[in-house]
Amino acid sequence: MIPLAYYLAISAILFTLGALGVLIRRNPLIIFMSVELMLNAANLAFVAFARAYDVLAGQIFVFFVIAVAAAEVAVGLALIVVIFRTKHSIDVDLMNSLKG
Amino acid sequence: MDLTLILFIVLAVVAILTALGMLASRSAIYAALFLVLNFATVAIFYLMLGAPFIAMAQVTVYAGAIMVLFLFVIMLLGAEKLPKGEVLPWQRPLAIGLAAVLLAEAGYLLFQRLHITAGLANPGAEVNAPEAIQAMALSLFNQYLLPFEVTSVLLLVAMVGVIVLTKKEKGES
Amino acid sequence: MTAFVPSNIFAILPEILLLTLALLVLILDPFWKEASRHLNLGWLTAGGLLLTLAVSLVLARPSAPALVFGGMLRYDWLGFAFKMFFLFSAAITSLFMMDVERLGRRAEAYMLLLAATLGMSLMASAADLVMLYLAIETTSIPLYILAGFLTGDEKSTESGFKYLLFGALTSTVMLYGFSLIYGFSGKTGLYELAASFPTFSLLALGVLFMVLIGLAFKVSLFPFHFWAPDVYEGAPTPVAGFLSTASKAAGFAVILRLFMVVFPSISTDWSLILAILATLTMTVGNLIALAQKNIKRMLAYSSIAHAGYAMIGVVAFSQLGAASAVFYLIAYILTNLAAFGIVAAVGRVTGSDDLKAYYGLSRRAPTLALMMMVAFLSLAGMPPFGGFVAKVFVFAAAVEQGWVWLAVVGVLNSIIGLYYYMIVLKYVYLYRMENEDEEKHPIPISRPYAIALTILSIGIILVGVLFGPWFGLASSSAANLF
Fold it and tell me: Of the N and C termini of chain C, which has fewer Cβ atoms inside 10 Å?
């Protein structure tokens, strides 16, 4: 018997670590990976809740989230490639052509 | 202590360590590989939670397709080595503070409602994999038909978008 | 649960037509000659969208509100009215896109615009968290690509990437909020959820806050507004106009439905939070707009401020409040589309978005300057234009529900706003070009711009003068919420 709370705790920790990654890293690739980690944490919570209630909706939700993540990653990486082509660097701090 | 609990604790430790590893690693390749391992661990959690289909999707789509895409791009750009001093000094305490607040908030929210979460049935005990997948497919193509169709639009958009963005225009050097 | 009933088709008729049009654009594109491609693409898209609008108005008007497609959508006036707004703004945007270099000749750009519109339509009528999340992403992902569409342009790609990064982050936080909602109720249907949050709890408030982050990003509410100026500046101007109007309105459609349907029990708490956020949004937006030298950035900050005004209607939490918010959005969509359209028309000729490029515009293009005056006075909230009536309704709704201080803040902010809109009009009408003869530098307007801007100007005046029918539409959509 593993309490639901254990899964939720893992999910909360992973989500926090992902958020931390977004805040402290400067490389867009790593920031992007951290966002994926956060998505995974949300997914884990969904599946755990689906199990607790014995309702499938949670699993279905995760299925769609995975599809969305695939689309988002594809577009995001394409943008990174394009930026790299013009700048030969992908440091977020060098992304400063937009300023007030 | 029963076996599944031990398994859970081992996996949990692996999941947290790989997440930390991704955060701290100086090489984008290592970060991606840590993340693959993390996703694989989460996939085992899904199996333990009686979601075989999601576990499979996690391994093939997430750990497989998405992370391979990441690795491709890292290699393509030659961006595997990250510059030193990459972490901004003033941002770190702020970020850790924020993260602590977030974790505390999440923890509070979750444990406040612990009474509904008394315990889950033993993993895999009564989950019949083919039946579970069948049930999922049935609701996917009945109740969730519309979102399912919308996903196809989304994937088409991503496909068109990636081609538009990365294809060089005629006359462009 | 029975998912499919043939008559349900009418609930998603606009979406079906949108998808057909999007595919048609992609399929027909290779058959067109290079010289006339942008004309064919633009007119096909705009015409198709107007046809969709007309067909939907005739065939797909909702009667009694009903949940359709297994509870995924709610077929009601709120969703329907917003769908019509999105179709209209997409049609105008496609007219603006036609003459933009490296955008107007690409079929993909129109296809992405249509896909984003499809996502917004679903956002406006989504009645289930699954559908809502998917609709939000179907809206966002094409818009990320459109913002970064000009691949040779550093600013554009950066703008696209920034938009994607903040969008992905905030939508992930929102998703976590969704998972907690699901976790504490075991349900995902918005109309089933209200029963799960019957009384105040810290938990409900925390969940609400996480969800609000994702939506605040969409409508650029303080403190999630910082992306807007950067993204608007870098994105192609017509796309920026679309982002600041339709995309924002879609966010408001979701906020209206979610807050009024799922969380009515804690309305006093979220009203206060939103009131504070609206105050900050208006003030920050207006004050920073004062200092801008680039007109797209100025309009970005002004559109942040306008999100604050519209939020006042939501804060009021009444039928009048919701109706006034919807009415505000009608006026705002017309006005801001016109403003961005003018910026696109001028920027195309002068190649600059600097405020300096507008010196002496009244002599270079008198009609354009006149339209600019209509749009900017409406943004400033001057009678007899749409913006004035909209502000009056929103403030009246706030006062009716006892939010007098919020209405006062709104009025004070309108005065700040008036100042910087007037400065631009001063440049246009009173300043002269430096050492140049304006007569020799006319700004020609191409036909699509002329048509679109004329429609918008008439619309702005019409909403301001004959506001009865528009307010009736806003009221009947609001009535479906309560």
Answer: N
Spatial separation of the C-alpha atoms in residues C131 and C73, rounded to whole Å: 8
Angstrom distance (rounded) from CA B14 to CA B8: 10
Q: How confident is the model at residue A94 (pLDDT cuts 50, 70, 90)?
A: low
Looking at beta carbons, which residues of chain A come within 8 Å of C155?
97-98
Place of tokens 């209209």: C88
Sort out which chain C residues have CB atoms less than 8 A from B145's CB and list them.
3-4, 69-70
- A64 lies within 8 A of chain C by CB: yes
Could you report the per-residue pLDDT of B113-171, keeping only the tens digit for each? 544 444 555 444 556 678 888 888 888 888 899 999 999 999 999 999 999 998 876 55
A4-93 CATH choice from 1.10.287.3510, 1.10.10.60, 3.30.390.10, 3.40.1350.10: 1.10.287.3510
The predicted structure's pLDDT at residue C363? 85
* ipTM at complex level: 0.93
How far is C163 from B146, CA to CA, in rounded Å?
A: 27
CA C419, CA C156: separation in Å to the nearest integer? 30
- Burial string for C379-404 (b: 16+ CB within 10 Å, else e) reads bbbbeebbbbbbbebbbbbbeebebe
Which residues of B fall within a CB distance of 8 Å from A1? 2, 4-5, 119-122
Percentage helix, strand, coil for chain A under 3-state DSSP, each rounded to 5? 80, 0, 20
* pLDDT one-digit tens code per residue, B29-86: 999 999 999 999 999 999 988 888 999 999 999 888 899 999 998 888 876 666 655 5
Domains along chain B with CATH numbers: 3-82+92-166 (1.20.120.1200)
What is the number of residues in chain B?
A: 173
Element holding C74 (H helix, E strand): strand C73-75
Res A91: pLDDT: 64
Distance from CA of C216 to the nearest CA of A (A): 18
Confidence at residue C109, expressed as pLDDT on a 0 to 100 scale? 93
Whole-number Å distance between alpha carbons of C142 and B154: 8
Question: By a Cβ cutoff of 8 Å, what residues of chain B touch chain C?
Answer: 105, 108-109, 112-113, 116, 142-147, 150-151, 153-154, 156-158, 160-161, 163-166, 168-169, 172
Interface chains of chain C (3 or more CB pairs under 8 Å): A, B
Sketch the domain layout of chain A as residue ranges.
4-93
